[in-house]
């Protein structure tokens, strides 16, 4: 891949890139099938991504007609890479094997290694014969909705497709690598004012937060809404609070340290709760929740913003769902996309039905939603919450940081990009958006 990197750094044309020979193998972060049981009997928090994530050469797969090879300049850590690397809740090789049963092109994915990663920025270097809208040389970011567009179920909202998958989690050849293979309908323009690593981190979490809050498929937030955002300086939350602010709402951010409170204030979020300082005990023991603690939480929210919240942006799951359902306003919406602390959820249903609340499930975003969310990044209206950058060789440590909640915002990973700060094509727009605003999380982070 060195020849591609040299050509990209030298500003080679698309034709020149297309004329370069593809290598037989490429460097990729992956887990191994024969290690899927390596953490058997180990507590979740002790399962160490640094032991299971390997970086090494893997074979370049064949290209399907509707796909593109992208030389990856940078990628990012998402929580799904943590799940894959600790083999929870299940080893992801089951997903690959299922995809492997879907015809000739599907069989490529069912391998004994799984190349992970569901975000990337880079340069298109080849396109399949059926690709119309993209060419070698295009600078792109990649969203992770992987759908078979010949399946009728994918043609209302593609997130409803029967065989919808997340690239780099439920498919192989993910973004934490020097090369990736993606469907052409995963490609989106790279934000011209951002570096490779600032561009690489956004698509998964920004699009997910956009669907949850802004899209009519989610909570369809309106001006004036108060929105409770758990993990408000984390991967999802740092986009969610920006969408709320942009949409004329009032975010109430929940975080767990004074540094994160300060970061959110700098981002423009006035109402912030430090859950460690507040020391909420929503669960009095493993099986019992304490309604008086939900009430204390609700009171704290009302003290900050004057009323209950119209929307709760949920993802911690078991630890917080009871409180989320309680704290949501009459007729409000709890929109959830995850359950980091446990997926067997308990809440008091009386608070849901008597006050006509809705719990809405949401998962990633369709191409249109991802595209619209990416436009907000391209226009400088949503800032990239990049807090730290690791080399691809350090991917295990980067995943460890996310696993143990030691990070803020998003962690970027350099693939082919030899250093930070490259790839900025529009310095004027960057200056207009503001260097200080763009680098806010980076200056807070390590
Ligand atoms: N379905 C989808 O499409 C989709 C997309 C993206 C992510 N996800 C999932 O969503 C979850 C969050 O992803 P992320 O990228 O935002 O992760 P992240 O960067 O780790 O941020 C999550 C934040 O949640 C807060 N948190 C964690 N455990 C908590 C608990 N028990 N109680 C209260 N707050 C807690 C933490 O913030 P504080 O410690 O500061 O409070 C943490 O920073 C993951 O499970 C991920 O797999 C799903």
Structure characterization notes:
The chain is 32% helix and 22% strand. The chain has 19 helices and 20 strands. It has helices at residues 2-9, 14-19, 49-52, 79-85, 93-100, 103-107, 196-200, 203-213, 235-246, 258-267, 275-278, 291-305, 321-327, 349-353, 367-378, 395-403, 427-433, 435-438, 440-444, and strands spanning 25-32, 54-59, 67-76, 113-115, 120-127, 139-142, 145-146, 165-166, 179-183, 187-189, 226-229, 250-255, 271-274, 283-285, 288-289, 309-314, 328-336, 358-361, 386-391, 410-414. The strands form five sheets. Strands 3, 5, 6, 9, 10, 19 and 20 form a seven-stranded mixed beta sheet that branches. Helix 14 links the parallel strand 17 (328-336) and strand 18. Helix 4 crosses helix 16 (395-403) and helix 12 packs across helix 13 (321-327). The longest helix is centred in the C-terminal third of the chain and has 15 residues, at 291-305. 50% of the residues are buried. The mean pLDDT is 97. The chain binds NADP nicotinamide-adenine-dinucleotide phosphate.
């Amino acid at each position: 891949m060195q020849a591609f990197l040299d050509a990209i750094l030298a500003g080679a044309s698309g034709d020149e890139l297309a004329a370069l020979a593809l290598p037989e193998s490429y460097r990729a972060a992956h887990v191994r099938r024969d290690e899927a049981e390596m953490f058997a009997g180990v507590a979740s928090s002790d399962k160490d991504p640094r032991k299971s994530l390997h970086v090494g050469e893997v074979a370049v797969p064949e290209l399907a007609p509707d796909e593109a090879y992208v030389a990856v300049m940078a990628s990012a850590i998402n929580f799904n890479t943590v799940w894959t690397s600790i083999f929870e809740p299940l080893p992801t090789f089951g997903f690959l094997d299922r995809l492997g049963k879907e015809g000739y092109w599907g069989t490529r994915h069912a391998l004994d290694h799984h190349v992970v990663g569901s975000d990337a920025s880079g340069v298109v270097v080849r396109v399949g014969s059926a690709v119309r809208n993209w060419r070698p040389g295009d600078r792109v970011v990649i969203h992770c909705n992987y759908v078979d567009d010949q399946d009728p179920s994918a043609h209302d909202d593609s997130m409803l497709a029967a065989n919808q998958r997340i690239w780099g989690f439920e498919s192989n050849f993910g973004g934490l690598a020097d090369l990736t293979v993606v469907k052409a309908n995963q490609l989106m323009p790279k934000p011209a004012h951002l570096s490779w690593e600032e561009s690489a981190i956004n698509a998964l979490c920004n699009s997910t937060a956009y669907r949850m809050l802004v899209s009519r498929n989610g909570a369809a937030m309106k001006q004036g809404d108060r929105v409770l955002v758990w993990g408000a300086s984390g991967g999802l939350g740092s986009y969610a609070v920006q969408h709320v602010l942009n949409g004329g709402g009032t975010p109430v951010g929940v975080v767990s340290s004074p540094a994160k409170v300060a970061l959110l204030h700098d981002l423009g979020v006035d109402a912030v709760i430090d859950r460690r300082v507040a020391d909420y005990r929503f669960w009095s023991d493993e099986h019992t929740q304490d309604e008086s603690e939900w009430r204390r939480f609700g009171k704290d929210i009302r003290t900050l913003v004057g009323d209950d919240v119209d929307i709760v942006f949920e993802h911690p799951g078991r630890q917080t769902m009871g409180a989320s359902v309680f704290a949501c306003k009459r007729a409000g919406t709890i929109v959830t996309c995850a359950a980091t602390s446990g997926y067997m959820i308990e809440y008091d249903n009386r608070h849901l039905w008597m006050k006509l609340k809705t719990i809405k499930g949401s998962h990633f975003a369709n191409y249109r939603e991802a595209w619209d969310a990416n436009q907000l990044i391209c226009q400088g209206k949503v800032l990239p919450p990049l807090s730290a950058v690791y080399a691809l060789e350090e991917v295990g440590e980067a995943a460890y940081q996310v696993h143990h909640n030691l990070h803020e915002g998003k962690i970027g990973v350099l693939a082919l990009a030899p250093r930070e700060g490259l790839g900025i094509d529009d310095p004027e727009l960057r200056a207009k958006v503001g260097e200080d605003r763009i680098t806010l999380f980076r200056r807070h982070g390590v």
